[in-house]
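Good morning,

Both structures are done.
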Amino acid sequence: MVVSFHELAERELIDAAEYYEREQPGLGAAFIADVQRCTDAIVDHPEAGAVIRGRVRRRLCRRFPYGVLYSIRQDTVRILAVMNLRRRPGYWIGRS
């Protein structure tokens, strides 16, 4: 499967990694690795994520309080948001 990121999801990933890196050197890389593990799990088992709304599913990161929201389109996984689970729960609605 091909993975594509919505431009705002990619921005969220970068912003969060930069924040964590400022908090503690190396933590930003750990965050990116955690999101990558989550994305790999989505590719391996795309139907396993919990359905959040319509065709949007969510996989939780292990170490950080983030979820990866995605939709499945034929042979593509579209990452819609890299969402902090402690903030604004519905801000991503309307992304495709």
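Second structure follows.
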Amino acid sequence: MDYILLSFGTTMLLFVIVGLLSMRKSKHTSQDYLTASRSVPPWLAGLSAVATNNSGYMFVGMIGYTYTVGLPSIWLMIGWIVGDFIASINVHKALIMKSQEVHAHSVGGLIANWQGKDYFVLRKAIGVLIVLFLIVYTAAQLGAGSKALTTIMGWDRNIGTILAALIILFYSFSGGLRASIWTDALQSFIMIISMFMLLFVSIDSIGGYSVFMEKIFMIKPGYMDWFPSEMKNNYISIFGFVIGWFFGGIGVVGQPHILIRYMALDSVNSLNRMRAYYYIWFTLFYAATICVGLISHIAIPEVQNFDPETALLVLSQQTLTPIFIGIMLAGLFAATISTADSLVLSCSASLTRDFTLIPIENYKSVKIGTLFVTISALLIATLNNKTIFALVLDAWGVFASTLGPIIFLLAKGHKISENKALILMFVGIVSFYGWNFFGTSTIYAIAPAWLIVFILYYILTLNIEKRH
């Protein structure tokens, strides 16, 4: 346990040091705190965005999901990355240019001012949405860290939650978004190194690749089929399953904590280089995560009351030495923190610039906003017992279904009035939750929500055109 704690603690200390070093470039203004003065180079922006996107959900939720369903989880990877890329091609260039043009420091401010007017009510509505759901999203990340420390260290689950919150608060206070981005880059390396380390060691521990291929097909019927067994020969269900996760990836255009990385990029001309870093890392890490999830089911038999979301942690204990267990734990914590700090800062931006009657420019007030958000997320994380996978998909889905379609339409040059935007947001969130309650669980609710929002948009647009 001492060696685990030593390697874990050393890695955590590195994150804090890197965050403190970012203070050397801090300008101590609210604009610099929230957008790093739009001066982030493409490699840093790319690694930060991908580390933020691939949260503790990947280490905990995604591996647990793969452990449970098997190879069909690959469609989350394929759909998500392809959808993400298509969204990027259609949205991010316009988003960067418009954020520079209107001097936006928050996603709510960007959307509300996109068309040259300050849509006051829309900005407030987005502010409420972001503050509420980003705090819940942050709580999910803190929960992932607590689950890790509880499983490996045997600590009370609230200790990990509090530790993650303190680290985030410490370096976010130090350098704001710049500190978050710098530490994200380091965290991205720790995440991918730890995942591949576990992958190779685990394959070796079960007897090599040939033994892995032999045993993986013996787990249970349908485990290595391309699609879930309940969808066999049902092509409509298969299409819905795949398209649902495709829209999950497209939903990246509605995520404030990821969009702010693009808004902080040093130049729109750096976008293609940022994409290269982002998608290469994303593909490698996601593929390794699925492989680890499959291996974990060979190494860890499915028994009653086993929590699949602890599969990675149990596998680490079975195959790694204490020092490397600490590094793996640090990798999971890195994933947790890289997303949580981004969520906290995006929420702080919305709280102080969109949620209030008048945008708050005071540097200290923005920091107070960060403190409020962190404490609120911490309280939710200590009380909530919903799975990490479900919490993340809910929060991601809400932003994808409300902000995503509006940003997509604006980026493609469509004109959207304030009232129409508010209606589309309302319909998006109702459609998302309505599908979760009444629709089939095989189709991620973002897909029908986008479809309904787009149909409504074109109906409203046609009606307006007919009147004129």
